[in-house]
Amino acid sequence: MIAEPTLLSRSVQKENSVVDVSSCASVHHVSSERNENRQKTVRGKRKARECSENAKRKHSKSSNGSLGRAENEQLKNGDVEAVTLFEVVSMGRNAMQAVVDDWIDAYTGDRDSALLDLISFFIQCSGCKGMVTAEMFQSKKGTDVMSKMVEDLDEDTGLQYKKFLAFPWILTVTWPLDMDSGEYPLIMSGLYWKRFRSHFCEFVSVLVAQCQNCVIFDGYLLNTLISLLTELSDSRVRAFRHTCTLAAVKLLSALVNVALNLSVSVDNSQRLYEVELAKMASKRASPRLDRIQRKISELQDRKCEIENMMDAIFKGVFLKRYRDVIPEIRAICMEELTVWMKLYSSVFLNDSYLKYVGWMMHDKQPDVRLKCVLGLQALYQDQSSSKMDLFTIRFKERMISMTLDKDHEVAIQAMRLLMVISQSCEDVLSPDDHKNVFQFVYCSHRPLATTAGEFLYNRLLSNHELSKPRDGASDQERHRELVLARVRALIHFHTENELHQHVLYLVDSLWDSAGALLKDWTGLTSLLLPHTSCQEQALSSAEEAFVIELILASVRQAAEGPPLSGRGAGKKVINTKEKKLQIDDCTKLTEHFIKVLPELLSKYSEDAEKLASLLKIPQYFQTDTCDHENSQCVRALLAELEAAVDRHTDAGLLEAAARSYQSLCAQDLPWHSLARPSFDRLIQHWTDTLGTRLGESLSDGCFTANEDSTLEFLSTLKKLNAFNVAQDLSKWSLYELGTRLLDVEIKHSGLPMEVTIEALRCMCSCILWKLNTFGEGLTSRAFMCLSDVLIAHNYQLQMWDSSAGTPLLYTPDPKLQKALLSFVVEHVFTSPEQDTHSSKVMASGPGRTTTDTFCFQSRKLSESECGDGRLEDLHRRRNLLAAYCKLIVHSVLEMSMATELFKQYVKFYNDFGDIIKETLNRTRQMDKMESARTLVQCLQQLYLRLKQEQDRGNTCSSRVQTYSSIKELARRFSLTFGWDQIKSRESLAMIHRDGIEFVFKGFVQQSEKHSPPYISYLTILSEFSSKLLKPDKKTIYSYLQKFAGEQVINNREESWMPLIYYRASLMGTAEGEDAISFISSDTNKQPSLSNRSRSPSVRQVNSEGDQRFLSPSLEPKGNELLKSSEDSKVQQAPLSREQLSSSLVSDKVLRSSDEVDVDTVDIDG
């Protein structure tokens, strides 16, 4: 993409430098010279360029040219010899200083030639493929100058050109028409071009820094450079505009540094002048004073000149480009403007310049808003807020509202900006502003919540005035008072907030900033325990409840860590350092609470709500650090646990106690010998009590207990149910006790409703524990029974007589639907063991011994014995799949639940193809559009999963279908639409429309130069193009043009090949043949989902692990395969009537694994 711009030879340039531009002969000479160069071939241009570069190199060597030292330095390092400034700067910053020094030497010797080299460098950095010509400007007439300032198209040569004044030259830049749609260095991807951007900016800074004491004030260099950058930054070509805007603002930043140095020199000279003036008249040297005064005047003149240059760049470039259509250019302008304000505040830090930052905080692009916010952070941190009072008042509301920005990074940085403003300007944010901002500690995005937590901690909890230590107080008392003051400030914030009561999310937000306070469990628990010296500071009951919740949340955070529910997509992978810190925190909390928790449980033994929170703490103990030394503390803890569950029947408390018992009774825990007997005694006591009360309450088979006995009976049953959920209590015969109670209710009734409900819960838990120990046969039967019940209920609703009353309505909740789907995926779509291939290899392999023969024969016998078992297992799986499909066909489950079934259509075609195909046809009869959406969802989910695996580098995962198999699945789906295209035209149009929207989502025609990431999906989508009617193809093609644009559709680059294939499938043009020829020349490349997709008419086949791409003319017709498959068919044993009736469709004769269907190709599933 990047080619060197061609300059005219030095002789032509020097000739132009002495000829008046008004002379028509000279202008015609330059024009004819340029036209002659345009007509050269590419090879001729390259040879001419090499000759020119060689001549330039000879000139530089003989006259200490612009690149001598840099080239020598690069050659010593073994690098390729560089000629142009662009090549040297691209090599890196090692040669930057030498490049600038060499260029200054060349400029001192021949400033015209060196300056043209610099102009060529900026043109070349813009990615210009054309050439630059220059002619000297000497005319005094302004009309002649204005007539030459053009940017237009030369119809004769087909080139664009721009002619402008860069005093003292008139420069003409020509470039091809396609340059505006191509890439240029600043936007090209890759580490090399990212480094080039930094090298480019550094070159401009180093150039000005090295020239600040010499040629920068000659009135020639910077004037020409500013004119060049101003004109090119106003070009219609994005490459020129972007590159030269960046160069111009970096040039202004470098001039700011020069102005700062001059200001320092003026101040130093002024102080020296004052010192000299303060001397006595006899010791004062008048010539020295005159020299200092002249130096001060000279420095001030230079400073004024630099400021004039800065003003010219600001007005000529910044004011035109800060609202450019390209967001990158706007972001550059805002970033550099804030840098100027920070460095040179005396000139730029005022309302005249700050208003641009305030305006651009409303920009539509998040990058621009982010640069504004980051720049304002630096300004407010620099203690310059006194100059920004008017700006702060004017744009305060906007800065606060940016915390709600849809871009998370902008919102986070806006929160940090408010934090800085709050620290530097005390009275800017009102209490209501702080209250609204602090609410973000409860937001779902954790980085924003932690930033708000940091703001909350700095504002409320780190204030030194929270606790003033009492005179004579010890360090321990001072620490307790500080913790109490911070906790009360947190309580005040929490109770003042009426919208949120989520202590767990508050702790998660404060964890990074206030971790020391939240992990201070010694200080927090000391607030709950009695303290003799601080009785007047005792907490209220509500405050104690908050502290207990705070302790529990901090214990959970230390043991498990983020993310919480709703604050993260999945489990966070922690590194070794974080893991070690987590283990240390768990060890500390275990050592502390094993001693303190019994005392806390004893204190709050009457408060069920507080006890429920405290009883959850043992679940987070670190079992690896437990030892026998704390056995006395464990006994005390178990005693308090037993007392708590004996005293209370609250459901939450019983559940927490059951989970804590489960943690303490773990087999690998040293406390198992103490906790397990205590648990067993407790359960045995409850069962004995329940049996005794049941015997006393039954009289002649009737329940005759009084109110007190009934309450005791009910509370004991609730406790057993709560513990039966956490652990299996089958050995205590709870099922038999529940059966006796239900027998009483069934035979004689009179059992209280609450007792009946608890008895049912008890039996349900026992059944679930029993099912958990059974094998797969029972679970499959339970699945079939549940499916039959749901279908029968659905049939009842359809046949319901309205005169019979209101029917019982029931819809399976999403959790049950997901459980049914998970069961089918796990138990139906399982790949059977394929031992046939290995057996054949073993039977015919060379060098087979007698032992091998015996083993083979034995294995053959075992395979024949297992054949019936495999056939029976296949039939069982078909019945399960048919039962699930009936749920979808009868509208018991949503149609989208069939997505996972359709994904397996090709992979399990021989086993379940008929059932899945029939399900697809039935759903299409129910709702054509919804069925088509299900197919689209199926293909897109498979594609996205494969794309994610490829991005992670997992290209060989057996759990993910290959690209060719997804494409084959799309082809099979298209075949199910049949030959009646009129019936399916709406469904097919929706499939294409949804696929186009999926591919071009977020794609902007003008600004995007790269292909969309999901463009290869068009190749999959093209499988449905053959089913479209001709008018529909035209409509779909118009819809495609709406998203992609005519310019993108006609793009012939390799990354856009899937779009060409899809367009060919819609238009029916000869581009399909071009696509096939492209593939045939690229058969050894692995298809990539990002930019290498295959033709829609090309099918991928798998032969012994090698993937080949064949055109349709090379595909096998299938006759020979069909003939061989018919010979290899095996007869299946007939199925019973009961088995056949349970299936959705009649089972077809199963084909062997070696059979190949006529309409299919082998794929790598």
From TrEMBL:
Q: Provide GO CC annotations from the record.
A: chromatin; chromosome, centromeric region; cohesin complex; nucleus
Under which name does UniProt file this protein? Cohesin subunit SA
Q: How does it assemble?
A: Part of the cohesin complex which is composed of a heterodimer between a SMC1 protein (SMC1A or SMC1B) and SMC3, which are attached via their hinge domain, and RAD21 which link them at their heads, and one STAG protein.
- Give a GO biological-process term: cell division
Where does the record place a coiled coil? none
Arranged from A to Z, the UniProt key words for this protein are: Cell cycle, Cell division, Chromosome, Chromosome partition, Nucleus
Biased composition, class Polar residues, residue ranges:
1081-1104, 1130-1143
